[in-house]
Amino acid sequence: MTMTNYPLTVPMPVLKLPLLTTDPLTAGELFSHCGVRIVALPLAPAMDAPGAATLGEVGGLGAWLKWEGLTVALPGFGQPLTKVKKNSERVGVHYQLPHGGAKKTVNGAEYEEWLKAAHASVALPLSQAPDHYAPVDDIVRSVAVNAAWGAQTPTGWGVVQGAGLKAARQESIAYLVEQNITNFYLGGFEQPLEDEEWQRSLEMTTDLLPPNGLVMVEAATPFRIQAAIEAGVHLIISDLPLTLARHHRYLQEDLSDVPVEEGAPHGLPKQAWPYLTERHVGLATRLLTEANVKNWTAYFAKKHREMLN
After folding, report:
1. Cβ neighbours, 10 Å, residue 109
2. 5-23 pLDDT, tens per residue?
3. What average pLDDT does the segment 138-161 reach?
4. Contacts of 98 (CB under 8 A, 6+ apart)
5. Angle CA 214–189–248, to nearest 5
6. Residue 268, helix vs strand vs coil
7. Angle at Cα 52 formed by Cα 82 and Cα 23, nearest 5°?
8. How many CA atoms, within 13 angstroms, populate the side-chain half-sphere of residue 2?
9. CA distance 72 to 120
10. pLDDT over 70 at 2, yes or no
11. In what order do the strands lie in the sheet with 12-16?
12. How does pLDDT run across 252-296, given as a tens digit for each residue?
């Protein structure tokens, strides 16, 4: 299944999941029940464990989670490109695993094997964004090397790089158009930028894109989600409802959040939540996750209805 034959409502929420800490026995049913239609999973940690061979054997990321909706495979390197070297196009991406800190490298051919194992509905090519505030020369060089990586690992989607520089973003888009790319993921917006700079860079980049293609970006906070919607982004990746659940915060329908005791989701009295979070952590986390994800998808549904009116 691909997005070309899948009904999309715009803006479309894409729930970002960590593969190994997501319960494969309940995730599919839970998130479908909450209105999720697309999930995104980072490849780099998944290819370390359970690993490409195992994922390939079971049928990919979606099969591992018993997920029947769409899956988006993100590179998932977790840190920006630090320095472009003469051999970067050939050597590939250097990265460090979040758990254990092992240092790894993946080149284009190896990344192709990742993509085969993932069996994702949509996948991004090999890519790594530069630091948003890196020197100009480094940002410009990163645009060229990311274009080369994309050509080595074509997926039908292009990753627009260039940090906050208009000329660099323009050059990145030009490379992708030459490769006949019509759908764009906006790279670098997963970085922890100031809200004003994040929004400025996003609006600048979306204004440069050619018309008629799909646009996808990662937006971790309510401000970023709203800014992405206002900029006309079609697919918005976020782990906001899960992050808040881990911190015992209840996500309300307007995307504000309060302590779970104050929000009292599922109609449970606020006095019940301290007991649940202490004595029944798994149950409390599941109930709060369900409530948060439902309100998150409801927010997008409301924005869709507003666009139609």
Report:
1. 11
2. 667 889 999 999 988 778 8
3. 97
4. 45, 78
5. 105
6. coil
7. 95
8. 8
9. 6
10. no
11. 122-123, 70-74, 38-42, 12-16, 235-238, 215-218, 183-186, 157-160
12. 999 999 999 888 788 888 888 888 888 888 888 899 999 999 999
The pTM of the full predicted model, rounded to 2 decimals, is: 0.96
In the numeric block, the tokens 């997005």 are attached to 3
User: Tokens standing for 9?
Assistant: 């409502």
Q: How confident is the model at residue 159 (pLDDT cuts 50, 70, 90)?
A: very high
User: How many Å apart are CA 200 and CA 206, to the nearest integer?
Assistant: 10
User: What DSSP line would sit under 233-257, residue for residue?
Assistant: -SEEEE-HHHHHHHTTEEEPTTS-E
HSE-up (13 A, CA, CB side) for residue 9: 16
Continuous H helices in the chain: 27-33, 43-46, 52-58, 61-64, 88-91, 108-118, 136-152, 166-178, 195-208, 222-230, 240-246, 260-263, 272-279, 281-308
